[in-house]
Amino acid sequence: MPIGLLINTYLLLFSITEFFKFKSFFVPSGLYQKTIVDPAGIGEITIKLREGLVEKKLYAEPNLTISDLANELQMDKARLRHYFKEQETSFKKYLNTIRVSEFKTLLLNKEFQNYNLTGLSTMVGFQSEATFFRVFKEIEGVTPSEFQQKNNLSL
User: Fold this and answer.
1) How many Cβ atoms are within 10 Å of 55's Cβ, its own excluded?
2) How many Å apart are CA 81 and CA 89, to the nearest integer?
3) What's the Cα-to-Cα distance from 69 to each of 12, 94, 151, rounded to whole Å?
4) What are the per-10-residue average pLDDT scores of the chain (155 residues)?
5) N or C: which end of the chain has fewer CB within 10 A?
6) Which one, of 28, 54, 51, 44, lies nearest residue 80 by Cα?
7) Which residues, other chains included, contact 97 with Cβ-Cβ below 8 Å and sequence gap of 6+?
């Protein structure tokens, strides 16, 4: 009986190791390597992001995901994620920074002086008033109301 157990254990271990060797023929070795963005590529991605998010106003889409953005920019999602990692930020932080910047632009524009803070925040893609106020305070260090008062604006 013990010899049979040893033989079965050996066959099991042998088949497991052979399976992983066999699998290596079908799975490309570079499949799980990191995506590398060269310095020239970083500038290209920055320009594409600016064009897509700001000029096409994709930031105003409340449910915008990194997948949606990658599809719109005709770019690989992994490359885009790596770009944000290289910039030491995340997609959400980058998007929220643009949204806050656009909010401030609208707030300073006389054309939008009849809008309230919540209305303007909705125009730049924030769905929740609480989220908008929290994000604005994180980025600017003051609340939107304080920013408005500091700039002598009245809505």
Assistant:
1) 8
2) 10
3) 47, 12, 33
4) 77 73 57 55 86 90 93 90 90 95 92 90 94 96 91 61
5) N
6) 44
7) 89, 139
- Residues 124/103, Cβ–Cβ less than 8 Å: yes
How many Å is the Cα radius of gyration of the chain?
26
In this structure, what token pair is assigned to residue 99? 């949204």
Instruction: Give the separation between CA 128 and CA 139, rounded to whole angstroms.
Output: 17
Name the token pair of 30: 């570079």
**Token duo for residue 96:** 């929220």
CB 52 within 8 A of CB 69: yes
Contact (CB, 8 A) for 81 and 91 = yes
- For 54-98, write each residue's pLDDT tens digit: 889 999 999 999 999 999 989 889 989 999 998 899 999 999 999
Distances (CA, A) of 133 to 48, 51, 66, 137: 28, 26, 23, 6
The DSSP secondary-structure symbol of 33 reads S
Extract the tokens encoding 64. 């915008």
How many Cβ atoms sit within 10 Å of the Cβ of residue 126? 23
Per DSSP (E only), the strands in 53-150 are: none
